[in-house]
């Protein structure tokens, strides 16, 4: 089994940023990509923009024109490219996979622009459509018109600071589009006045600052929807160091060691690899840290033995008497990682590992980097062992300097209903101006705390709109969804007076080349369901007597119950005419409660994802659209992935009567 | 909506039941694949017996024709299992190979559909099919015309082997290797000229301007011809775009011509889009081209065998803003009919020419396990006004039979008042644009200079009752003062100005 530590090492953001770097000559060698930027103040931002693939460069593009105004289309195209590099940041709010082709949509309906002057067969169409689709997902249908109002986008007109800010707002926790420029200025991305036109050089600088921001802590730092984030531990940069420097002239033992490490890195390791390493362990090979560390990777021995080797590596570290905080961090991470693996079957292990790892604390000097690199894992083990107060004390002691410690202490204080303490701690911090990461984190934490304090108000708003929808006497739902690979498009007419609904539409099976029709009636009074089977050309009757899916079980709970029983988290943004509420039910809570219910699909094994986005028209308080994404795995090993978008129409002329013919001609 | 996933699940469950049909042992895998694909997806909902009998019938006929073998089957055979048993038996007893039997059975099933657009492709045929949609051909890179029994180069394709050689427009091809082209038909000449990519031939040509013969060795190459070609008509500005095929680049080429026309700054009286003999191509290309003519609107309805109707819309397009005439004929098919039908229904364009082919169906190419492919008809489409196209064709708004007269009529219906027609190097030239033709405008007969009656009738808008294709011009010149003939050297030009 490969260690989980590997996944910590994958900076998702960093790798995707790199992949979009174009094949143009790098500016590193003193060459400038354009001939008109050498004296411009934003020169280095422009160069970094070229390196990140934001701007076209090469022999055919000699100038950048940094002092010209940037057009709306140019800015949108630049933003599209920044998004592609930094989309990971927005994932909790978009739930768009990294490879989603935004311009194609996700179902039958292809997205299009609400403008008359941006045509399909133009260079700007693709990027504009992608950004528009993204805004739709984040803020509701037609949201690009909040930025550029009207039926014309005037793509070749210069973009204003305010318009640029409304677009950049998506990367912040700014919750109100009318305050976009203030929010974006507070991050230092833009500097001008509302109606000032944005110069190309300024745009490059904004993009550069934004990319820097996207490399650091994400928005919603306290959100942990999949239960994988906390306790937070540092990201390890190099999981496979040699722990020593070797020259081309190596002894036989050194050669064996280097070969073994190579084999492990390239996943070519065999029993021989580890028996070679074991020989190094017993002799007087000086690099005992390395020998023990890599033996802790041996899949042929038990996890206890791996753990033992991991501790022996730490022993060797202290025997060397050389202070290398990064090395101690990796060695501690290694111990923690093994504890996590063993902890899945035996939660008592955390206490034992904690006790053993604590013995090293006396060997390091308090408040040093070396000390931090050890205690961050001690605190994580304390959390895992249930000693939350101990962990909090520990995290608090260095929260002002350490990002993970600060995020952890804030998160666990809030989890313990100690919001005021959390807020006090975060507000009391005044990080150094040059520590941009800490500045960013503190600001995001403050914003996240204030959104968490709004939870009950947001829940009330949402509950109100949902109730309003449930009370509408008639309604039409137009939707598209994907259920386990089947793609559906439907219209559902709901007639609450007649207690009946009808759903018509079609679906694409992943096993067929052509569409199948869909037609069904639901009798909500007698709880009966009539579905037309086009293969047998007959109506089939079903009784609705139990909940089949976990998401149906959640769906039947009201918002207060979701907060109380399932620890649901809500986040509200106001953009243009909509209030958008995003709802997450964190995986550990959903699984714990979900396992106690019996569903039509059987018992739930795991529930990796449950999220909803509700789009509410601010004027009428009506819920006008709902997006969802759920993933559920049942004990039968059935994997259900269900996502889709429903659009609600309250004024449609809807009348549903279930025909007698349908009721009578049914087969069973 | 809370119960929607339940409804969806119900729909899915029926399907999985329908799918749980057991498979046969896979000795004739491709036959099986084609069988199931047709059974599940073909627009015509054929029954099993029809396919099985079709397969058996063709296989036994082919065996008799090609191997003089009598293969017997029962007219009661109506399952895939029975078909495979027969094929296995014929393979064993007749010593026939499975690949051949597969091909016969597959083609037999397809023939039984009475659908010429459902076609089986071998790997090479598929490649050829895809190339032709993209207007890619293997060749030397010149186009010929047949003039008085001589094959003369009328055009050299840019970036082709011919363009890189010393061949010139107007050169007459005498020999291909050792074969003389004199008195050969177009088809024969084409057969000698074509060959595999990379193969060579020695061409002997005669250059009249230098009165000498020369020999050129050329290698055949894969050439991508432009999908669209365009130009402005002389005199009164009208755009002309001819689209050869709906490949993946066609829409961009049409767009570029429209941009180029706009850049001249001349206000156009209209646009002629020539879709004659355009057999179609990709639907997506037709939609993109439609978006160059209309801002937004329904492009078509598509239905399948399950009665599911889907709308396809054009979005984010641009209104063309000038009157459009689309030239169509019996060779305008599929995507051509789709585009012409939609633009007509939205009153963007009028159709000029003859009735279109009538291929209102859409196919999908599916790859088979052995590397071959099946192009199968899955959908029928209808124009935005629900006009049926399939097997019917579109009737033009202005019916004109003659090729040159179609252009004349289109121009006049756009309000063009002055027209100028001549014959040049085997083409008919109308207001400066060359149209390849088999019928010249003028012929010298014993009774003097004759003109093609159909063209003259449309030009002067008079009914001409003559049975003859060509009629003497002189009486019309006399009677019609707005008709003038000019001669410079050997070239005759007919002028007509409407009052």
TrEMBL record, chain A:
Domain of life: Bacteria
InterPro entries, alphabetized: SLH_dom
Residue intervals of the SLH domain: 29-93
Record-linked Pfam families: SLH
Protein name: S-layer homology domain-containing protein
Organism: Brevibacillus invocatus
From TrEMBL, chain B:
Molecular functions per Gene Ontology: endopeptidase activity; serine-type peptidase activity
SMART domains, alphabetized: PDZ, TSPc
PDZ domain boundaries: 125-208
Swiss-Prot/TrEMBL GO biological process terms: proteolysis; signal transduction
Swiss-Prot/TrEMBL keywords: Hydrolase, Protease, Serine protease, Signal
A Pfam cross-reference name: PDZ_6
One Gene Ontology term, aspect cellular component: outer membrane-bounded periplasmic space
Homology family: Belongs to the peptidase S41A family.
Name under which the protein is recorded: S41 family peptidase
UniProt xrefs under InterPro entries: ClpP/crotonase-like_dom_sf (IPR029045), PDZ (IPR001478), PDZ_6 (IPR041489), PDZ_sf (IPR036034), Peptidase_S41A (IPR004447), Tail-specific_protease (IPR005151)
Signal peptide: 1-23
